Amino acid sequence: MDKNLNEYPHRRYNPLTEEWVLVSPHRSKRPWQGQVEKHSADSRPQYDPGCYLCPGNSRSGGEQNPEYKDVYVFTNDFSALLKDSPDFNLEEDDIFRAESEKGICRVICFSPDHSLTVPQMKVADIRKVVDLWIEEYQALGSDPEINYVQIFENKGEIMGCSNPHPHGQIWASQKLPLEPFKKQCSQKEYFEKHNNTLLSDYLQKEINKNERLIFENNHFVAVVPFWATWPYEAMIIPKRAMARITDMTDDEKTGLADTYKRLTMIYDKVFDVSFPYSAGIHQAPTDGEQHNEWHWHMVFYPPLLRSATVKKFMVGYEMLATPQRDITPESAAQLLKDINQTI
User: Fold this and answer.
1) Among the residues of 271-342, which ranges form H helices?
2) Binding site for Zn(2+): what residues are annotated?
3) Nearby residues of 54 by Cβ (< 8 Å), 6 or more positions away
4) What is the DSSP string of 203-256?
5) What's 121's DSSP letter?
6) How far apart are CA 147 and CA 284, in angstroms?
7) Distance of alpha carbon 100 from its chain centroid, rounded?
8) At what angle do helices 123-141 and 250-270 cross, to 10 degrees?
9) How many whole angstroms separate alpha carbon 245 and alpha carbon 295?
10) How many other C-beta atoms can be found within 10 angstroms of the C-beta atom of residue 19?
11) Which of 48, 52, 157, 264 has the highest CB neighbour number within 10 Å of its CB?
12) What is the pLDDT along the chain (343 residues), one digit of tens a residue?
């Protein structure tokens, strides 16, 4: 790596979103007065009678969960999107504009065991989650009013997760959301210019450099992206260019489950704490188009910076100007790579 990138302030370009992040590696040398501590692992029962996601319990909306044995999915009782919203448009002028948005919000319980998190689950059980993601993507995406299906997981109270039961969500919307829209535009432009997916070329360069690669298996690579914004941000990228998770072979589905588990296991060892993050899959829209430009991927945005309780806040300059980070993506990748060798 260019030594200037390791010593001096610089900006890095994110070709997926066409945005920049400020990297300030010299700031990592400054004294730190915040407390650095280790937390003991969370201790929760396998079944919590007060949890609205546990099998057999009543949910907040009054519905009762079945006695499910592995994965379970249901429509969110308090959805942010509604399928029966009326169509409307507000366009008074070039300033005051609004339009209706329809959609469906689903909740996926990863396991009936309240005490588990993804890194503690068996690969075979995580594979059931992957299979359900695929089923939901197909089912929701087949609705002509649904043009994008966003699959994601929030883990940890620090990330606003209101229930520790292992679960994720799916928000399926009529319009293409902002982040996938940016990636749609950049990948389409790159594909038309190079006749190859942006992430195929990027991934090959990362494998050759081996500076930010955390680990790989037969089908997937876990990498800290060159343009990472969050301290220990990572991406899971399939080695084979695919527009959607529905394009995976049986072996690739298991490979994704294995990669998901291993990366989150590594995270848990960074500060010896159940590591919080927001993770999600970005893939092709469900608008009926082929979208050969898309190369689906899974992103992880963990907030912790220096300890189990000290997080990276996007405040001040980050809110007003440009996202900024102190530790370089390379140093973060090296730490995660070293931990991987111990698992």
Assistant:
1) 317-320, 329-340
2) 51, 54, 114, 165
3) 47, 48, 65, 112, 114, 165
4) HHHHHHH-SSEEEE-SSEEEE--TT--STT-EEEEESS--SSGGG--HHHHHHH
5) S
6) 9
7) 27
8) 120
9) 10
10) 15
11) 264
12) 677 888 899 999 999 999 999 999 877 665 444 444 455 456 899 999 999 999 999 998 889 999 999 999 999 999 999 999 999 999 888 899 999 999 999 999 999 999 999 999 999 999 999 999 999 999 999 999 999 999 999 999 888 788 999 999 999 999 999 999 999 999 999 999 999 999 999 999 999 999 999 999 999 999 999 999 999 999 999 999 999 999 999 999 999 999 999 999 999 999 999 999 999 999 999 999 999 999 999 999 999 998 888 888 889 999 999 999 989 999 999 999 999 999 9
- What amino acid positions are annotated as catalytic residues? 167
What gap in Å lies between CA 58 and CA 49, rounded to an integer?
9
What's 58's DSSP letter? B
Provide the angle, in degrees to the nearest 10, between the axes of the packed helices 198-209 and 178-194: 80
Identify the H or E element spanning 199. helix 198-209
Structure tokens belonging to residue 228? 């990472």
Distance CA 38, CA 43 (A): 15
The closest alpha carbon to 81, from 103, 61, 100, 98, belongs to 103
Q: What are phi and psi of 10, to 5 degrees?
A: -160, 165
pTM: 0.94
Q: Which class would CATH give 13-23+42-341?
A: alpha beta
Nearest one of 133, 152, 128, 166 to 51, comparing CA atoms:
166
Q: Which tokens go with 308? A: 């189990």
